[in-house]
């Protein structure tokens, strides 16, 4: 079964199918995040771009499935799932943990012969810039404090004890995946890379994000926005315009 007959799979969510779009954008959530984070992106870019959002195991409707806490394994699984969706030009967008995962998927796709429109890496230092972070080893209370500090999850959701019990295993698994990730040497990407970051992001400095330039032989650009780790929530119109201008230049020009 291919995308021609199905719009949703356990791994891939296609909220606003755009079968006539000239390009496809695959979106990768942050640690603890889910595919629905990109529902507004899908709505905004359709029908100019066919947006797919990746749903990791262990959350929402996949909450009964085991989480995957190894970045390489997760990248292998996602790459396999994207096979049927490579019939048109594809770009990858990832925020935070999702940026690292998108990069690893991009490496695998290019190694298999796929030409990508580009990689959009948001809120994450370059793979070669390693931080010694161990939030995945913290107590539940400390992990919740980390989530509140980043403002990635609405505070009222974290006050719901039943919901917290449901999401914490996925959050911890994702943090383990990204914090134990180590970049493996290999050929740089060939596709363009656009790195995006908030100017007050505690998880990624502008210097760390600028180092994404080292990971491609293609064009590189850096965009800095006002805000913290989840700057893209407040800067959505500008972020969407930046994505559009790289994926479909004509439409992007119309949006700006």
UniProtKB/TrEMBL annotation:
Residues 26-247 form the Thioesterase TesA-like domain. The keyword Hydrolase applies. SUPFAM superfamilies: alpha/beta-Hydrolases. The keyword Lipoprotein does not apply. Pfam families: Thioesterase (PF00975). Keywords: Hydrolase. It comes from the Bacteria. InterPro entries: AB_hydrolase_fold, TEII, TesA-like, Thioesterase. PANTHER family: S-ACYL FATTY ACID SYNTHASE THIOESTERASE, MEDIUM CHAIN (PTHR11487:SF0), THIOESTERASE (PTHR11487). Belongs to the thioesterase family. This is Thioesterase II family protein. It comes from Streptomyces chlorus.
């Amino acid at each position: 079964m291919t995308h021609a007959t199905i719009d949703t799979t356990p791994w891939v969510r296609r909220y606003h199918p755009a079968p006539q779009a000239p390009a496809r954008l695959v979106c990768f959530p942050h640690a603890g995040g889910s595919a629905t984070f990109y529902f507004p992106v899908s709505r905004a870019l359709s029908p100019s771009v066919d947006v797919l959002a990746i749903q990791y195991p262990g959350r929402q409707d996949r909450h009964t499935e085991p989480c995957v806490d190894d970045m390489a394994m997760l990248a292998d699984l996602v790459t396999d799932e994207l096979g049927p969706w490579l019939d048109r030009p594809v770009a990858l967008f990832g925020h935070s943990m999702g940026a690292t995962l998108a990069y690893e998927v991009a490496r695998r796709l290019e190694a298999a012969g796929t030409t990508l429109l580009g990689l959009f890496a948001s809120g994450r230092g370059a793979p070669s810039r390693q931080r010694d972070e161990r939030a995945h080893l913290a107590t539940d209370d400390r992990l919740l404090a980390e989530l509140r500090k980043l403002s990635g999850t609405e505070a009222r959701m974290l006050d719901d004890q039943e919901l917290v019990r449901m999401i914490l295993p996925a959050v911890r698994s994702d943090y383990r995946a990204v914090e134990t990730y180590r970049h493996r040497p290999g050929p740089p990407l060939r596709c363009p890379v656009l790195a995006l970051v908030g100017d007050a992001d505690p998880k990624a400095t502008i210097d760390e994000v600028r180092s994404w330039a080292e990971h491609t032989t293609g064009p590189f650009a850096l965009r800095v926005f006002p805000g913290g780790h989840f700057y893209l929530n407040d800067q959505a119109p500008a972020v969407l315009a930046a994505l559009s201008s790289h994926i479909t230049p004509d439409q992007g020009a119309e949006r700006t």
